[in-house]
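Review session, final week

We close the course with one last complete record, chosen because it touches almost every idea we covered. It is KIF-binding protein, a protein from Denticeps clupeoides with 625 residues. Go through it on your own first, then we will talk.
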Amino acid sequence: MASPGSREWRAVCDKFRDAQNLSDVESRKDPENEPFRSKYKARELLREIHGALKAFGGGGGEDDDTDADGDGDAGSAFGRGWPGDSERGMRAARLGVVEYCLGVNHVETEELSAGEEHLMNCLKLLHKFSVTDSNVSLSIQVRNQLGILWAGRDETEKAQGFLETAEAIYAYYMKEAGQPPMDLTDFFVLEEDQLSQQEKTKRFEMAYTHTMYYLAQVYKNVQQYERAGQYCHSTLQRQLQFNQFEPMEWAINAATLSQYYITKSRFMEGRHCLAAAGVIADLAGEVPSEAAAQENEAEYEKREQLRQKRADIARCWIKYCLNLLQDAKKLLEDNIGELDPDRQAEMKRARRNEEEEKEQGRKSAVLFGSSDTFDSICALEEKVSCTFPLEFEEARAIFLVGQEYVNQAKEYFQMDGHVTDHIEILQDHSALFKVLAFFEEDLERRCKMHKRRVDMLEPICKDLNAHHYLLVCRQLQFELAEAYNEMMNLKLSLADRQDDLDAHTVKKFNFLCASSIKYYQMFLDSLRSPDGKFPDQLENDVLRPALVAKFCVARLQSKIITTSLSVQLENLNRSLEDYSFVVQYCEQHPEAKNAAETELELSEEMLTLLPLKINRIQAKMATSN
């Protein structure tokens, strides 16, 4: 082997440095018609280094024929501790670094098979040596790359094997040694240019952070969502701890993780992720002004990226508030969807008993942030509760936070240019009003909340092109039908308190019935074929909505108030026809019974009762004639 200070060795070190510069820096400047020009130049230098090492006698371990394929067994990665491990292991690691760099180079130039070959060569060179400070970082990084490679080929099990072995190697090394190991660049620098211990630690920890990040993706792909969430959380923690993050990217990942916690009703963790996302996002700097963006293309791109990502975080906050309210509603409602006072009182007692336990849980929660950011994160958390609201004022406080983020999100996701996103935000806003109405005791105020839903969704539904946005139109039609139906039910409850209904009340009630019927019918008509035929068999995604719509139309038809017996008879016959559809469809398609069990039961009951009512009206009409 050439001596460290020799001219030959200096030439090797210079080539390695130049190869790194070409790959990491110069490649960013490559023209579009030659996207890999610098990568190819780096590859040639690496090949020259590889040949020089062979000539120097640096191929330690290449005579070993151990097969490293699969690497699923973590224990085998720790080697056999051969005699002379230090000197021969160093030579093998040095050659392994070049094989590793060649492997990454080929992968980055989309030559995956060649990349895999070089990465496996690296793995085989290291395979028979114990984990030491000279090869541990390389051992982890080569497995990270192989994990990415196999994951990209949808070979998740192989990817998982490499990455879990990398994780085990890290744990083993930290337990046995703990000091910062050699970095890959340390093999090709002069002694005076060696990295500091602090920098070595940072790079080693970064390699392991990548392992955890890739494992999070693998566990998500194999539907181990709990483990995926844990690894994602740990990745974000480590990025903050070692200052290895880009603020806005980190913030988006934290906000995305919050959505996992929210679906598991772990609102404390979800809120903490979102608060941390908001604080870290601010580190990305101010959004450039519109004037600056118009004058400079780079400023325009920065402005758009920051605005979009902050709007994305706002949307995650909306989901947090909405899910917290909806989960509380599920716990508090009775079997007809109204607030259960007994359940409410029970949950209030349970909350008082759990205050101390809650505080302890808060302290033991997995937290983000350094001393510089922790106070800011906590301050943002305090703006919204993470406990279930049990009465209107508590629900309203959460609603107002959600509504604030709705307004923030709409500033970027405007109807002009972001149609689908804008409508989804409006639908979430509507859902916030809907769930808040559940907590409101005053029926008139509840009715006004549903009117707000109608006011925000109806203009969009009327203007939207149903041909291009069929699914969205169906969603809006169904939601508007439900909102009008809710208002009709509330007006019906208010009417029951009155002795006599005045003409204005009757007109308003009938308008709400007719409006709900109209939108349910629009939804049902959207299911028809181009020639106007209603499908003989409904698709699974519209099966329940279609049967519910038919049932609701039947019910609404029979509720319309009229003094005309002939009109009343006509409405009841239409109602009977729609109830019959629900029953007959479920008889012809037994699998549909589970989709609309309650509606089917009530429809069968109405098929018995309605004919009696129709007969009485017909008898009355015959008598009056």
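Two points worth writing down before the exam:
The chain has a mean pLDDT of 89.
The chain has 23 helices and no strands.
Good luck, everyone.
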